[in-house]
Specification:
With 354 residues, this protein is α+β, with helices and mostly antiparallel strands. The protein has 4 domains: 23-79; 85-136, SH3 type barrels, CATH 2.30.30; 147-244, Sandwich (Immunoglobulin-like), CATH 2.60.40; 250-353, no CATH class. The chain contains 7 helices and 20 strands.
Length: 354
């Protein structure tokens, strides 16, 4: 009964507290040890004339057992959570000696449990479990440094005065830095030779835009970072033609009729759709000094119509020793190849030999 003995000083009693009682008061949570002490004390100092019944003691013991199991389960859950954090990126809260709060970010190396206390080792330093603020997915961290285009960009390309187009992009930081990009315009991948990257400036050469019709095009940019970041809604290219006559490309000199003039004459006579030559095809014919005769042009037209009738979209049409790639949907000659070129053809649906 020493716990109930109180000292007397100046005619009044002075309460005394044991170290264990003081410790219990400082803890706002009622643990299983404190609950057991209360139960033992109640049994020890019960009224002998009106003692507690066995039923009450059994109920209290059952409550004590339930409390103990809940605390054990809570500790087990905490340990399991701690073990699952190994290898994860976390942020822990650190309170300095003067009360300042800082946050440390790093990777959990290992977990230690000593005397029921769980500690996380983050980049060589140990932190208590209750200092854990948040767990961050590694992919999320990578995305924070991924390449991007912060604002919408609209570029203007004039077919009558063609010029390269340049825009700026964030090429990324850390483990997601990009050194190159791929650009898709109107569903067609721009040739890598027509795209250059200089620091954060990306240039599309005018040659890549020359075959685009007048209109507005959404461009897709794919960066070569570790995530292959793709931007689809930031870059718009508006194609216009302020001087259509200046944009007409001639494959022959001024003393000869151009392909377009010869075919236009045929169109007027026969009422057929005009077979067009792309700027690239005209340049290829001019650079190789290929002069097509009227007969060869007629044979080329015939081959294109036959390919279209057979449902061929991208056709190889052979006229003598000259090979033409024709897109029958747009009725356009894409390119031309003669004996001086390597004869390797890809992405064609069929061939017509005239």
């Amino acid at each position: 009964m020493s716990e109930l003995v109180q000292g007397v000083q100046n005619g009044t009693t002075t309460p005394t507290q044991t170290t264990s009682a003081t410790s219990a008061l400082t803890n706002s949570a009622l643990g299983k040890d404190a609950f057991l002490q209360l139960l033992v004390t109640q049994m020890k100092y019960q009224d002998p004339l009106n003692p507690n019944s066995d039923t009450e003691f059994v109920a209290q013991l059952a409550t004590f057992s339930q409390l103990e199991q809940m605390q054990n389960l809570s500790q087990t859950t905490t340990n399991s959570q701690a073990f699952s954090l190994v290898g994860q990126n976390v942020v822990v809260k650190v309170i300095g000696t003067s009360g300042e709060v800082t946050y440390k970010e790093g990777t959990v190396d290992f977990v230690t449990i000593s005397n029921g206390k769980v500690q996380l080792s983050v980049d060589g330093n140990k932190y208590n479990m209750d200092q854990l603020e948040r767990v961050v997915d590694s992919l999320y961290i990578l995305k924070q440094g991924a390449p991007s285009i912060d604002q919408k960009i609209t570029l203007e390309y004039d077919k009558s005065t063609p010029a390269d187009l340049t825009f700026e992009a964030n090429m990324g930081t850390g483990d997601t830095v990009a050194s190159d990009v791929a650009i898709v315009i109107n569903g067609v991948l721009v040739d890598s030779e027509d795209v250059t990257v200089n620091n954060n400036k990306i240039t599309i050469k005018k040659e890549a835009l020359s075959d685009l019709e007048v209109g507005s095009y959404k461009a897709t940019i794919v960066f070569n970072d570790s995530l292959y970041t793709t931007v689809t809604d930031k870059l718009t290219i508006n194609v216009k033609n302020t001087n259509p006559e200046a944009a007409v490309s001639k494959a022959f000199d001024t003393n000869k009729k151009s392909f377009q003039e010869v075919l236009l004459e045929k169109q007027n006579i026969e009422g057929q759709e005009l077979l067009k030559f792309s700027k690239h095809a005209n340049e290829r014919l001019a650079s190789r000094n290929i002069d097509l005769t009227t007969t060869q042009l007629e044979r080329l037209e015939t081959g294109a119509r036959k390919a279209q009738a057979k449902g061929i979209n991208e056709s190889l049409v052979m006229v003598d020793n000259i090979a033409f790639i024709v897109n029958t949907k747009s009725n356009t000659v894409i390119t031309a190849v003669n004996d001086s070129d390597d004869k390797i053809f890809t992405n064609i649906d069929g061939a017509v030999i005239i």
